[in-house]
């Protein structure tokens, strides 16, 4: 029940794949994961114009830390836009989204269990 060991490697060697849900413009690059527990480290990419409304409001049973590397996302429920350099730490059960990214966005995320 642990992520695999990795020494430094070029992250772009890992391709982006579609995320679960109904939004094909939302893709992820899984850098490390433990499939048994669901914990992961990933990069999440919103193509320009991505709207995650079909996926609804999200809440997870794990901790999630998110750092915006590029671009911006707007939480449609809150009516707030978050930009590159901003950070979030969400405890299990915290609601967030749905999101709109007019210009596109790239985040770095770490997920772990309590």
UniProtKB/TrEMBL annotation:
UniProt cross-references to Gene3D superfamilies, sorted A to Z: Jelly Rolls
Annotated TM spans: none
A Pfam family assignment: Cupin_7
Segment forming the signal sequence: none
InterPro entries: ChrR-like_cupin_dom (IPR025979), RmlC-like_jellyroll (IPR014710), RmlC_Cupin_sf (IPR011051)
SUPFAM superfamilies attached to this UniProt entry: RmlC-like cupins
Domain ChrR-like cupin: 25-108
This protein's name: Cupin
Native organism: Actinomadura rubrisoli
